[in-house]
Amino acid sequence: MLSTSADLACQRCINPVCGSTFAVDQTLTACPDCGSLLDIAYEWDRLPVPDSLSFFESRWSNRRNPLDYSGVWRFRDLLPFAPESQIVTIGEGQTILQPSTTVGNYVGLNAGSLFLQYEGLNPSGSFKDNGMTAASTHARMVGAKIAACASTGNTSASLAIYASTTGLFRVVVFVGSGKIAYGKLSQALDYNALTLQVLGDFDDALARVQEVAGDRGIYLCNSVNPFRLEGQKSIMFRVLESLNWEVPDWIVVPGGNLGNSSAFGKAFTELRDLGLIDRIPRLAVINAEGANTLYQLYEERGVRWNGGSPDDAIIDQFFADMDAEQRRANTLASAIEINRPVNLKKCLRALEACDGIVRQVSDQEILDAKAQVGAGGFGCEPASAASVAGARLLRREGVIAPSDRVVCILTGHQLKDPDATVAYHSGDKALFDKKLAANGVKNAPFGNQPVVVENDLQKIIEALEAN
Ligand SMILES: *Cc1c(COP(=O)(O)O)cnc(C)c1O
Ligand SMILES: [Zn+2]
Asked: Is the full-model pTM beyond 0.85?
């Protein structure tokens, strides 16, 4: 049996000029020496790493052990920062990689080439649970009594479910007063989290929660938390597992705070360095047009990781202009309505490792893609569909070939944001105008309107025959 040891893991500053390291039992959200983000690093050569990914299949037969049941912790040898006795799990990561003909046709790929990774099937309905199980584990390791996060909705739902199911700590969530989807807000309230609705947007809420966490020893669970990203690596492990450990050509993921894309890059880099895969897939990160900081910096201004020295002058100028012009993020894809992505530099590193590319898509493209996902499977929330809209764009551009194997990450469940779905499909013009038109959505080509029918058998039969 492989074991884990917290002694062989540390927190390490991602800035190669600094590179300071800190013990994993410290609670940090940035490098105390230079302010950069932190990674979890491992002494792999002193850890018992399996020599083949198929090792992990042996855990399928041991599902009564919660650690082997978890879609995150059955890969615990690849995120060995915690003693097994400290691991917090609620059965996250039972997700599926589903081939989709409907969506493949829409994207423009050959039959059998498009796969949807349904992370909405997690306990709180989004991929965030992959990270929160790891952050909760670390919170337990350091004895945290209160955990907090700022959230566009799903992070708070996830943190709240871990607190309510385990009773390990109290939770305070900071939500902005912009477009929080009701499905998500309802979760934080139902799971009994103290919910502070900050009169500002997500970027404001995040700034405030970071101040509070620094001042009062509250454990911060936003994606600046490097332990969260360790858990999110497992999304890629499961994708590989579903493909019989074959590496696909493309991973396409929506970009908000850029935690997922960063985690994916780290996962593939580590797997390659460990000799467990022989090549790395390309990564496409998709922004919404109304929240396109990464697109602007990477594609328009050419900012690169550059061996750990990205051009800070360009980045700083970009944010200074944003503030001077009072530009605020604005998209119906509320989960990626973020203008100051905290993991920007880690994402730049991931883009370098994965020969990555960034695109932006409109809210119209997002909602159309979402309707195609729904018509062809389990459905998703708007932000998730940015991945499919982005894959379609890259296919049209010829960047993705029709024969490429493409995995789109569906980050959140369809039921998270019923308002957007109903406004798109219902055919109710007033609702459409109120909810969607202001964001540039002009029509609903894949709308599936309810058919109104009189309460009369004959009329119902006529309606069935006519439709
Ligand atoms: C959090 C979230 C995102 C954005 O992910 P990042 O890691 O912040 O880039 C996208 N979609 C959904 C549904 C989310 O909850
Ligand atoms: Zn540092």
From this structure: yes
Which three-class secondary structure state does DSSP give residue 219?
Answer: strand
CA distances from 127 to 38, 341, 372 (A): 21, 17, 20
* pLDDT, position 5: 59
Q: Rounded mean pLDDT of the chain?
A: 94
Q: Which of 92, 121, 126, 380 maximizes ligand 1 atoms within 8 Å of its Cβ, making it the mutation to test the pocket?
A: 126
pLDDT-derived band at 3, boundaries 50, 70, 90: very low
β-strands 250-254, 21-23 pairing: unpaired
Nearest residue (CA) to ligand 1, atom 14: 335
The overall longest dimension of the chain from CA atoms, in Å, is 77
- Which residues are near ligand 2, the ion (C-beta closer than 5 Å)? 13, 15, 18, 20, 31, 33-34, 36
Q: Is 384 in the pocket of ligand 1 (CB under 6 A)?
A: yes
Residue 343's SS3 state is: coil
- Calculate the alpha carbon distances from 249 to 4, 109, 113, 280, 315 in Å: 32, 12, 10, 8, 30
The per-residue pLDDT for 132 is 98
**What domains are there in the chain, each with its CATH number?**
96-124+228-420 (3.40.50.1100)
Q: Report which bound ligand comes closest to the CA of 31.
A: 2
Q: Length of the chain, please?
A: 467
Please give the pLDDT value at position 455: 94
Q: Is the CB of 290 under 6 A from ligand 1?
A: no
What is the pLDDT at residue 215?
A: 66
pLDDT over 50 at 112, yes or no:
yes
DSSP 30: S
Mean pLDDT of 158-164: 96
So what's the pLDDT on residue 1? 37
- Helix, strand, coil % over all residues of the chain, rounded to 5: 45, 15, 40
Ligand found nearest the CA of 254 = 1
Separation CA 372–CA 380 (nearest Å): 10
Give CA–CA dist 206/201, Å, rounded. 9
pLDDT in tens, 246-261: 999 999 999 999 999 9
Enter the DSSP assignment of 401.
Answer: -
**Dihedral angle, C-alpha 335, 432, 422, 394, nearest 10 °:** -50
